[in-house]
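Backbone-to-sequence.
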């Protein structure tokens, strides 16, 4: 196990700043727009995209203690936390939504977590929903045997993570007018917007249904920075029915984008962002001469739910 002194994130050689790649896409070019891809998916082969930006500061705070975090059966965040644990010699515990999964063979995502040394602790859905309640959390940690652990919330979005994501915005200063980003918890957007320069704006595409995200992002910015920061807005039209819903139209769009540009398109988040940006470009939402950067926050994982639920 690591001690605080030998936790060396730089030894993992993250590719930072992540590459910024201009691509030729006629759906943008014909409107007088430039499209850039901010390749956060290339930061690290296993701590991909916003996972690096959110986890790195949390691992530093954990300082060698067990890291406990939460996720569903296909959570990118659980996989990244497990990989970080293996790479850095930190014990990790994943609290997984769905007691019933405990008796089934692990799906490929959870199997990867387990192979990386993460101890999986399954809880029923009602407990999982109430995990922010301090009594419920204490009980979960007790039964998981992880009372002294550093707790990272579902999706990894706490104040440390949000401050970590500010660097994403800083890397884009002077490079784009509008920065598009897919949102789950909104933590990455909260940090990104805070790091952009005045005059730049962030545009979030929520992948969940619900319309609750603005208030959550305001709360995250309040906790991380003491108040609202940067210019940001959300467009709620591109969730395609909700989390991990990947109807044929979206899948076909993503496949076409991959063929046009040779960039792998993660379906649960990134495909919805790119679809949203292409739609907005077609609607004339961006003035001629605008440079749009799309943040590629993830990479497809084999047999993610998108390939199962179609
Ligand atoms: C690939 C990918 N993109 C975007 C996000 C959204 O990040 P956030 O929860 O900070 O909004 C996630 C969530 O973890 C993700 O896995």
């Amino acid at each position: 196990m690591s001690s605080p002194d030998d936790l060396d994130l730089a030894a993992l050689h993250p590719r930072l700043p992540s590459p910024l790649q201009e691509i030729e896409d006629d759906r943008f070019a014909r409107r007088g727009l430039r499209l850039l891809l901010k390749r956060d998916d290339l930061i690290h082969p296993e701590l991909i995209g916003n996972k690096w930006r959110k986890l790195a500061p949390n691992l530093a705070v954990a300082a060698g203690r067990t890291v406990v975090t939460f996720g569903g059966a296909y959570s990118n965040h659980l996989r990244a936390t497990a990989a970080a644990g293996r790479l850095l010699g930190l014990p990790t515990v994943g609290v997984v939504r769905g007691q019933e999964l405990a008796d089934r063979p692990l799906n490929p995502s959870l199997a990867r977590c387990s192979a990386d040394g993460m101890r999986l602790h399954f809880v029923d859905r009602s407990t999982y929903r109430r995990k922010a309640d301090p009594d419920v959390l204490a009980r979960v940690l007790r039964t998981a045997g992880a009372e002294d652990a550093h707790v990272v919330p579902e999706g990894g979005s706490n104040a440390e993570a949000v401050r970590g994501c500010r660097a994403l915005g800083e890397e884009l200063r002077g490079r784009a007018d509008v920065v598009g980003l897919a949102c789950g918890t909104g933590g990455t957007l909260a940090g990104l917007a805070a790091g952009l320069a005045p005059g730049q704006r962030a545009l979030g595409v929520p992948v969940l249904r619900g319309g609750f995200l603005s208030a959550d992002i305001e709360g995250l910015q309040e906790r991380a920075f003491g108040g609202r920061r940067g210019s940001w807005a959300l467009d709620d039209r591109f969730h395609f029915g909700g989390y991990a819903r990947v109807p044929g139209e979206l899948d076909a769009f993503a496949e076409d984008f991959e063929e046009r540009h040779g960039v792998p398109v993660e379906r649960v988040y990134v495909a919805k962002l790119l679809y949203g940006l292409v739609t907005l470009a077609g609607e004339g939402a961006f003035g001629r001469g605008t440079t749009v950067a799309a943040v590629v926050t993830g990479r497809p994982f084999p047999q993610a739910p998108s390939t199962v639920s179609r």
